[in-house]
Amino acid sequence: PPGCSIALRGPAATLTGNPFEQPSRACLATHDDALVVIENGIITAFGPYAALRDTLPASIEIVHYPDNLIVPGFIDAHVHYPQMQMIGAFGAQLLEWLETYTFPAEMSFADAAHAQRVAHLFLRELLRAGTTTAMVYCTVHPHSVDAFFAEAERFDARMIAGKVLMDRNAPAALLDTAQRGYDESLALIERWHGRGRALYSVTPRFAPTSTDAQLDAAGALLKTRNGLFLQTHLCENPGEVEWVRALFPARASYLDVYAHAGLVGPRSMFGHGVHLHEGDFCTCHQSGAALAHCPTSNLFLGSGLFRLFDAVDPRRPVKVGLGTDVGGGTSLSQLQTLNEAYKVAALTGHRLDAVQGFYLATLGGARALGLEERIGRLAPGTEADICVLDPKATPFMDFRAGYCSSIEELLFLLMTLGDDRAVRATYVAGRRVYDRERAGDPFMP
Ligand code: GUN
Ligand code: ZN
User: Which of 112, 296, 363, 412 would disulfide-bridge 15, Cβ 3.0–4.6 Å?
Assistant: First the structure.
């Protein structure tokens, strides 16, 4: 079906502007008793219940969430679905962590049945966390991409993903070649890009695992269709940055390696960017490229503190999304990720307020992906991907919520204490695909 018709009633909040450029209070629209009207998977009206009740189509079902908070579905700008099985791996920084844990885990995706099992679990864990769009790394195996998009299609979820490209500096079982990576990616683009809500991202893992020839091939792939994305890692860890300098001595910077191959543009998403300089921020700003802030990962792997407030400096703002980076990150919950983002901001001398936090997880992420006309807000004409939060999810949260006197305070409570338990329901294209209270299987594909 082309999406559902339904109306959701209850307290609601949505971002309407960029709180890194305007006062936060001017960027959040809230209603204590709102109605979100959805027809054929698209939001057709959003506003006070009292104003909209008489305009409703006669037969439409109204689902009432009087004790919850209706918000746009979350957007995860950077995540690796094959790393579910080694999340929380002990004791290593990036390069040793890749060798010891990550590459062995990704090798197990040579088995297509394994890829399907993990894709099945991953999609459900995303929806359980209230995440309705994610930008996803698969493995080098093309069938890992098929498994992921096939699972996403069952929910009609707007997902962006791609086959990892690696032609050096990884185990032989995980290597393609520049030509083979190009051919396999092109076949996947033809199969998936624009099919239903699927979008394809060309996905060179990071500069150290691709030759110049492969990075050039990635640049050529981007030109094969309109609207293709690019995702890779950038300046995450000091040892990695040093290695890139040694591997590409002719390039002015790590970002310049990608720029040289034509990989820095408006739908490019660079993970981490912890160790960037002012010139790199300017390059991102001018090109429209975005950064994925991955605080749980940057803390867990000891990578460093992302300078969010420098990145979004209104004098040359860089678009930033919020990434969980599982399995370097430690949670698929954007609420938990905001919890750590707040602390990273604190350690760099800034205060990330709740409106700014929810911006990163919703509208900011959509803008970083160039998808703000489609997702990231409760607004007429956008796709009805919605998360229903429960600020009283646990006895302790219930107790603490009693001391909140505004929606902003409640949002901040959700971003410090919240996790997947605080997601009451998730809607994708107007369909309730996850319902915490539903007996048996809470998922409805
Ligand atoms: N850099 C290259 N590959 C990876 C990965 O899988 N995770 C993280 N966090 N950084 C990377
Ligand atoms: Zn990553």
Answer: 363
